Hints:
Blueprint: E1 4-10, E2 16-21, E3 29-32, H1 39-52, E4 57-61, H2 80-89, E5 102-106, E6 113-114, H3 119-131, H4 135-150, H5 158-170, H6 172-179, H7 184-199, H8 202-205, E7 227-231, H9 239-256, E8 268-272, H10 276-279, H11 284-297, E9 302-308, H12 316-319, E10 324-327, H13 335-346, H14 356-362, E11 367-371, E12 373-374, E13 378-379, E14 383-387, H15 399-408, H16 412-416, H17 424-445, H18 451-462, H19 483-493, H20 499-514
Parallel strand pairs: 3-9, 3-10, 4-7, 4-8, 5-6, 5-7, 8-9
Antiparallel strand pairs: 1-2, 1-14, 10-11, 11-14, 12-13
Helix pairs in contact: 3-4, 3-9, 4-7, 5-7, 5-17, 5-20, 9-11, 13-14, 17-18, 17-19, 17-20, 19-20
Bound molecules: adenosine-5'-triphosphate and magnesium ion.
Amino acid sequence: MENGVFVGGGGEGHGVKQWLRLDYANRHGLIAGATGTGKTVTLQILAEGFSAQGVPIFMSDVKGDLSGLAKPGSADFKLHQPFSDRARTIGFDDYAYTAFPVTFWDLFGTQGHPIRTTVAEMGPLLISRLLELSEAQEGILNIAFRVADEEGLPLLDLKDLQSMLVWLGENRESVSLRYGNIAVQSVGAIQRRLLVLENQGGAKFFGEPALDLRDLMRTDANGQGQINILAADKLMGAPRLYATFLLWLLSELFEDLPEVGDPEKPKLVFFFDEAHLLFDDAPKALVDKVEQVARLIRSKGVGVYFITQNPDDIPEDILGQLGNRVQHALRAFTARDRKALRMAAETYRENPTFDTEVAIREVGVGEAVTSMLERKGIPGMVERTLIRPPSSQLGPISPAERGGIVGASDLGDKYTRTLDRQSAFEILAQRTKEAAEAAENAELNEADLDAAMREYTAGRRYSGTRVGRSTAQPTRKTRKEDSFGEAMAKVVVKELKGTTGRRIVRGLLGGLFKAR
Ligand SMILES: Nc1ncnc2c1ncn2[C@@H]1O[C@H](COP(=O)(O)OP(=O)(O)OP(=O)(O)O)[C@@H](O)[C@H]1O
Ligand SMILES: [Mg+2]
């Protein structure tokens, strides 16, 4: 078949070739199965097939075992014989070892090109999800975004958002008049969640240069689709960040790509591993959004393939949209397992030669119950398919090999250096500094007044400035240091000589730590 990805052999003795049609590859897919049943290898061979047909791919590498795509398999490998036997069984006559063009990405910037976005681009809905905010807190985050917009304060990185929240806390009375009550506890709670995200390494992910989606949709000089691999092993330590990031990427693709209807082949195939993380106690609004993005992104030529252990991890509305399916074995230990198994079986078009439910229970490792879309997008009859062996290396390449590929990539220059444009943090810091300087000047002028009087005047004078905070309050004695606070203090305090200005700065920064 010219226009398909070879998946494996089904039918009698596994001799009937099974294909995933390129013209229906944008109708999404599912790879499911219990642990150790062959999901990752299926993902690998699908990526190989798409790449060979000029379709770029994006995938996350949860266990760090997909980098082998960049290197050919080897006749010295311990599974060379089983791979060759399998190829023969399924009539894969031109089975050969080859490498594929891979681009490595890493949110933390160590195992690949850094991948970043801005706070503003991610938007309040996803950031609320990321920070696991309550509804009330989400409301406040929405206000922060609105006010930042109105005040012309770009929200690019996490310190911008931090500054914005400090500002909101300080100005909550005037802001509340327009937007309703802003509880200081809620602002504090959001700030604390931000610190958690920062500790998980999230600060690296927000900023510029932001990812240019076109860099995920490239083909190499030979017309092979680029395989973009996101390092997700460390990222799995922050599952919320992982799931939100991938969802953000999907919605970004959806919003940016032009409508193409049903293309001959997809513009991009997106594999979403550990997809259950996206839906674990997700609010309905979010599930609806995923459902909507999945439904509409199809006509932008993007196919989304969910990978998960059990298909019932995926909400029904979304599952119903996954046209191309590779179901590896499911276990049937418990009553719940059996129910899930029965339900999984029921979603397939039956094959008269075997019982789907039994097949899903019995298929061996690297074997699966498959159903691909056929002409007119009709689901194909279910088959017991022996999945083809990989052409690239099974298992990871060495860190040195990986480093070599990252180093040689022409994307390095573009993404390695961070930009730090003038944004909310700098602008608010500047305002604070101006207020503090004004305070200092006033302090010097008042030098001959006695101390108490000076304190009083200074306090009065600043109550109406844009930072909107009186300095007459006592100085806070204890203040925890953190990167944000230090950074803010550095920008502001270094040029101040007197005490009053410093006090203002401390007061403002105090807002950040107050609610701890
Ligand atoms: N299509 C295949 N051809 C040849 N061998 C395979 C195939 N699929 C799986 N195998 C063998 O089975 C092993 C386990 O497969 P794989 O790593 O894909 O399982 P998995 O479902 O991803 O497991 P986990 O849930 O632990 O990630 C592979 O290392 C390989 O030896
Ligand atoms: Mg796996």
